[in-house]
Structure formats: structure tokens, C-alpha cells
Design goal:
Blueprint: H1 2-27, H2 46-56, E1 62-65, H3 73-77, E2 95-99, E3 102-112, E4 115-123, H4 126-133
Antiparallel strand pairs: 1-2, 2-3, 3-4
Length: 134
């Protein structure tokens, strides 16, 4: 009986998290890129489709950064189990979401059924990302 309750609790937690996300999405105005619509008679240009397929298959590394710090090698070598390393970020501040080392968004940690996730709170526009590269 407790297993059924655990499953119901997990489903409820995920449903609640998804409802919060839907509310957040409704509040945010998004810019949509123009999409080419295809009816049954039109086929995408094979060359363009091939280029798109190549791009879509490129692997990227997605990482979340809690914070950073700089320490001397002397102090690094003294670290052991139980050592505390102070980071440059306050508790409660959003995490940085990085793709291949480039900041693309900020988010907050969520825990559902003992698994970590991240809820994106602020996604940078492509033009902001390009500015950061320069």
C-alpha cells in the first residue's frame, strides 16, 4: 500500500512542478522565429535538410555551475575529505547553465523524487550570447 502512495506522491510532485513551469511559460513573452510551413506537395530542399541534419547531430556539453573560486595550489593540495571550499556565489542565487563553456541561461535547482533537475528561469537571447563571445 505504501508503494502506491509513494508513486502517487511522485506523480503529484511532477504534476506540481510541470504546472509551475506552465505558469512561468505563460508569463514570459517569447519571440518566435519564422517557420517555413510545408504542405503535402512541398518538400524541403535536400541540401538544406542535409545541412540541418549535420548541425542537429553535433554533440554539446551541458553543465550547471553552482559557483567558482580561485585557490593556490598549496591550498588545493591540503584539501581532504570534509574540507569546505567557499564559492563566489550566495546561497539561493541562480545557477549558470553552460553549453560548451558558454553561458546560455540561469536556473534553479529542483528535486523531485530524489533526483536533481534544473528549472530555467532566464534564457539569454542569441544576440546576448554572441556579445559574450566577443
Amino acid at each position: 500500500m505504501s508503494d502506491e502512495n509513494d508513486v502517487d506522491d511522485v506523480d503529484d510532485a511532477w504534476a506540481e512542478a510541470m504546472a509551475e513551469q506552465d505558469e512561468a511559460d505563460a508569463e514570459v513573452e517569447s519571440e518566435s522565429a519564422p517557420l517555413t510551413s510545408f504542405n503535402g506537395d512541398e518538400q524541403p530542399d535536400p541540401v538544406q535538410q542535409e545541412k540541418l541534419d549535420v548541425i542537429l547531430d553535433i554533440p554539446v556539453t551541458l553543465s550547471m555551475e553552482v559557483g567558482r573560486t580561485q585557490i593556490a595550489i598549496r591550498n588545493l593540495l591540503q584539501l581532504n575529505q570534509g574540507s569546505v571550499v567557499e564559492l563566489d556565489r550566495l546561497a539561493g542565487e541562480p545557477l549558470d547553465v553552460m553549453v560548451n563553456g558558454t553561458l546560455i541561461a540561469h536556473g534553479e535547482v529542483v528535486v523531485v523524487n530524489e533526483k536533481y533537475g534544473i528549472r530555467l528561469t532566464d534564457v539569454m537571447s542569441p544576440s546576448e550570447r554572441i556579445k559574450k563571445l566577443k
